[in-house]
Model the fold of this input.
Amino acid sequence: MTPARRTPPDAVPGPSVAVMRVLITGGAGFIGSHVVAALAAAGHESVVLDALLPSAHPGGTPPQLPGDRVAVGDVRDREAVADALAGVDAVCHQAAMVGLGKDFSDAPLYVGCNDLGTAVLLAEMASAGVRDLVLAGSMVVYGEGRYECSRHGTVRPGPRAEADLRAGDYEPRCPHCGTALTPGLVTEDAPVDPRNVYASTKLAQEHLAAAWARATGGRAVSLRYHNVYGPGMPRDTPYAGVASFFRSALARGEAPRVYEDGGQRRDFVHVHDVAAANAVALEAVRERRPASFAAYNTGSGEPHTIGEMAAALADAHGGPDPVVTGEYRLGDVRHVTADSRALREELGWRPRVSFAEGMKDFASAPLRDTRGRGRESRGRREESAVTLSGA
Ligand SMILES: NC(=O)c1ccc[n+]([C@@H]2O[C@H](COP(=O)([O-])OP(=O)(O)OC[C@H]3O[C@@H](n4cnc5c(N)ncnc54)[C@H](O)[C@@H]3O)[C@@H](O)[C@H]2O)c1
Ligand SMILES: [Zn+2]
Done:
């Protein structure tokens, strides 16, 4: 199909862009619904396929589903995917089970939705001749971030020992000489080290996408998102991220509870910037070489600590102030921050929402409704089942 050309409604004057019809899997979710909005603003059409999983939509069906064409269906269902792909130029694959889940019994669900679902989607794209894919990747594929030792250069510390965490000794040490390390920025060529089921499924999605590209001549880009936050973020479920717990606690009039000493470094990237990165990647992917796959870190480039994030949110909300608890969870990584230069330089993406602005806005932004879940009665145990490393 030869795409029509038109100038998007609110585009700045410049060359017109080819209108695309894009299938957004998971388009009813937190990030997917913002991608639909970003594509509409750029003059593109959206087809949404979303299973409305109860873990992501515990309050039931959202009142309004985004998209020009919407289907409630599962990416593991060949027929539903084939129908959704009709007339589509490119796919933006956001559908996935996110977070760490309740416990290991969730593993088949994660592998099913994330990896079997991706395989079904790619097989149907191959049959339908759809060649362009943008995948929602994740920083979790890297495990513990990048560190420098003054004597040994770049090193990769293993998981932290519980005795150290209990003693309040949170910083990972050089695996060779035991001295304190300086955290750095992870680049896309860093070795992967997925440390939980979710992380393994996110990495497998990339491997499947690369295999599909080689086998079909397709073009795939994975955007490895950092910790995404912003309006519409789900409330504090075992499937949500740390910004959502703090925000939800404040909404209940409670202090955000910060683990360790609050010095864990992350990159909090606003959902509007992530949605824009998807729109940019969808426009760029079709110009790439056939049979290609590339991954791009997608972060604000402005690392902050978890403590700073809690303080910024509490301040904008008007209190209460965060409490640093010294609690810890085995398996949490201490620092991981992305180097997102490649996405800026190669695709021309620019994050626009600063940390200060974004947190101020998020402190009063609506979260996704979780009606009927009895949030108040769940207490802390379930809250602490969620990873600080985000999705
Ligand atoms: N939120 C983050 O910080 C973050 C960070 C890194 C990567 N990601 C990735 O971004 C993507 C979107 O995440 P989100 O935060 O918007 O999560 P979300 O749970 O809000 O949205 C995911 C959507 O996918 C749908 N879905 C799940 N399994 C499906 C299936 N089998 N078939 C059809 N639909 C299905 C859900 O119903 C939901 O609407 C995911 O791929 C996630 O791994 C998110
Ligand atoms: Zn050393």
Summary: Residues 18-146+184-383 form a domain with the Rossmann fold fold (CATH 3.40.50.720).
